[in-house]
Amino acid sequence: MKAILKNYRFPIILLSSVIIGSILGINMGAQAEVIKPLGDIFLNLMFTLVVPLVFFATTSAIANMGSGQRFKKVMSSTFIVFLGTGLIAALVMVGAVKMFPGATDMNVELTKPESIETISAGEQLVGIFTTDNFIQLFSREHMLALIFFSLLLGFAITKVGEKAKPLAIFMNAGTIVLTKMVNLVMYYAPIGLGAYFAYLVGTFGTNLLETYMKTAILYFIVAAVFFVVAYTSYAFLSGGKKGIKLFWSHMLSPTVTSLATCSSMASLPVNLEATEKMRIPKDIRETVIPLGASMHKDGSVLGVILKIAVLFSVFDMDFSGFGTIGLAMLMAVLGGTVMGAIPSGGMIAEMLIISLYGFPMEALPIIAAISTIIDAPATALNVTGDNASAMLVSRRVEGKDWIEKVEEV
């Protein structure tokens, strides 16, 4: 019990600060605006860190990858599986918010972002992934372009090899330093989020809290269904009925550990042990599981779609159409995959959402609270999804009879 409380300590503190702030907001009413600057300080600090952190962490993650023929096959299969399962998770939550739109309705009046002028799909693509000025990369308005540039830089470092090693070391050091800065700023998060929620509830009333209850229920139901149906399907695709038995026979420890620790990284040793018992080839499990712990997060993908839908409701925007849904799914996969490589990536992904859509920074506490509420089930999906992915990668690399091969060894 003490271990569980220790692992959940900070989420509990954050949730408590939100509750205390909400109570203050109810009692203070419109006067709660007087403590809003305390929340603004937190938002400003986080937004100044997001750009350099994304640049250093994304570049470092790619630059630290290895090479070799089988390794390349394992890596390519891993990224195909990560991308495919991420898109499926995003599509599932899109369907859920469409079926139950009331779960994301939130009557909060914030300044609506300016309408984006109508441009062609090609121009939109160019504008999203590139910019014509190097300096513009390092602004919140061009986050996806920065990620794309960082990926290219990381791959270039890998290709150059030994001569680029000092740059790889520098990028890694930058990631460590900026991560520590984020950790330091997060100590102020309970005050900042508490103050902002006092302002939100004081200004917009208790209907805000009712919406969070509906949103949480929707996520918990979707997560439970996804956990059973999606992962059983992946196991079947990997190895038929044997695959299903192999997967579910070794899921208890990773699931319980992830729920108890609320951390993908803390669950990593248990996951490696589980995949060994599942007879996943050594080089595959030692590649997929560590990468998955930081870069493959089905639970986070579900959460990103939910947060985007909530913000579209807040700003009275239409969450429909191929372009809108497609961009949201891309954002979800980036939020759950690329941003997952960054410690405190949940908060960074939320800032990426806000930057990409042009929402005001006041929207951050609204979706940050959702992250805290869904943290445990999201982590469980993030962790167990890696094991299902390892099975799919084994199927791609070793062939359809991979289970029989390892049974003979």
TrEMBL record:
Q: Name one GO cellular component term.
A: plasma membrane
Q: Which UniProt keywords apply?
A: Cell membrane, Membrane, Transmembrane, Transmembrane helix, Transport
> Pfam families attached here?
SDF
Which processes are annotated in GO (biological process)? dicarboxylic acid transport
Membrane-topology descriptor: Multi-pass membrane protein
Report the principal subcellular site.
Answer: membrane
One GO molecular function term?
symporter activity
As for subcellular location, the record says: Cell membrane
- Please list every transmembrane segment annotated in the UniProt record, as residue ranges: 12-30, 42-62, 74-97, 143-161, 182-204, 216-237, 321-342, 354-374
Q: Does Cell membrane appear among the keywords?
A: yes
Would I find Magnesium among this entry's keywords?
A: no
Q: What PANTHER family would the database entry show?
A: PROTON/GLUTAMATE-ASPARTATE SYMPORTER, PROTON_GLUTAMATE-ASPARTATE SYMPORTER
Q: What is this protein called?
A: Sodium:proton antiporter
State the encoding gene.
gltT
